[in-house]
Write a structure and sequence with these properties.
Helix content is about 55%, strand content about 10%. By secondary structure, the chain is α/β, with parallel strands linked by helices. Helix 2 links the parallel strand 2 and strand 3. The two termini are about 30 Å apart. About 35% of the residues are buried.
């Protein structure tokens, strides 16, 4: 890994899905002359608007947004790609005299930008096909056990049925001969490292509030046409359910329903459950970031509290600069 110059000042906003990150980022970017950089592995995909809760055309027009609609669903986009793109954007936005506001829920992307990553090996179709064939005969739990032998760190955080991530971790090991967990880690932090970027974390005090919001939002997505959106994606003919884009929460469950593997009611239950599990993982990541500034997103004045926190962080930086 090559050393890089420290990034200019930027403000990060993170939180679990349905916590209100989009509205908070828009308010902050408007108030402090900022531009928004999306930190979301699903928003990069074109044609996936409803199930990703992509900002509306009106919201996108309020302030400049970046890293949204930059990939076709057939294409890959990973944390190393994000770190490279976001690094360039933070520097360019700052050079224009604007405030870079990074917002999203893909916590590995935040980590990759802050700490750097070794170069990830690209996809290897032959290795991927070999892994898929092995999974058909032995099952994903067996491959999870195999992963535990070569990369116990990654295996420990994956469920035995998490085919996408198990497959990718084994692919990295077989192609590069290095565990994925090693590539995802940079050198340990030292006293000489720059301080982490200020991070506002929107976290609920009551998990039930978030669960209700998740259910309401998933129902709203269905009302807006999520099933039709997935049906249109399937109709292209070049997409399949093992692509990272089609494994996004919501899309995977609808695809399975359209394949006849579940009823609409079961699809809804699975989609809500998967979204809750995603939120749980996001909150676990956030708790590992002790420098974060926590805002109770279920408080009635959450947006005002977020704005006040952002103002303090920005003014403190300007005072010290």
């Amino acid at each position: 890994m090559n050393p890089r110059a420290a990034l200019p000042f930027h403000l990060c906003i993170a939180g679990p899905t349905a916590a209100g990150k989009t509205s908070a980022a828009l308010a902050i970017a408007q108030a402090f002359d900022g531009e928004i950089i999306s930190v979301d592995s699903a928003l990069v995909y074109c044609g996936m608007d409803i199930g990703t809760a992509k900002p509306s055309a009106q919201e996108l027009a309020v302030v400049p947004h970046h890293l949204i609609n930059i990939r076709d669903p057939l294409q890959a986009y990973n944390a190393a790609d994000f770190a490279r793109d976001a690094d360039s954007l933070v520097r360019a936005i700052s050079a224009r005299g604007k405030l870079p506001v990074l917002v999203g829920g893909t916590m590995l992307y935040f980590k990759a930008l802050a700490q750097g990553m070794d170069a990830m090996p690209g996809a290897d179709p032959q290795i991927r096909a070999d892994i898929a064939a092995q999974a058909l005969t032995e099952g994903w739990p067996a491959l999870h056990a195999q992963l535990a032998q070569v990369d116990p760190v990654t295996a420990a955080r994956l469920a035995p049925a998490d085919s996408q991530r198990i497959g990718r971790a084994l692919e990295v090991w077989r192609s590069a001969g290095v565990p994925l967990s090693q590539l995802q880690l940079r050198k340990p932090a030292t006293a000489d490292d720059p301080a982490p970027a200020p991070l506002i974390s929107l976290e609920p005090q009551a998990r039930s509030w978030l669960h209700e919001r998740i259910a309401q939002r998933f129902d709203a997505m269905l009302d807006l046409g999520l099933i039709e959106e997935v049906r249109d994606l399937r109709a292209r003919g070049d997409l399949h359910p093992d692509l990272p884009s089609m494994r996004c929460v919501g899309y995977r469950q609808v695809w399975e329903m359209l394949d006849g593997h579940s009823s609409p009611a079961l699809m809804r239950d699975k989609g809500i459950f998967a979204t809750r599990q995603l939120a749980k993982r996001q909150l676990t990541w956030l708790r590992s970031m002790p420098h974060r500034h926590i805002i109770a997103c279920d408080h009635q004045n959450a947006l005002a509290h977020t704005m006040a926190c952002a103002r303090t962080l920005i003014e403190t930086h300007r005072t010290c600069a």
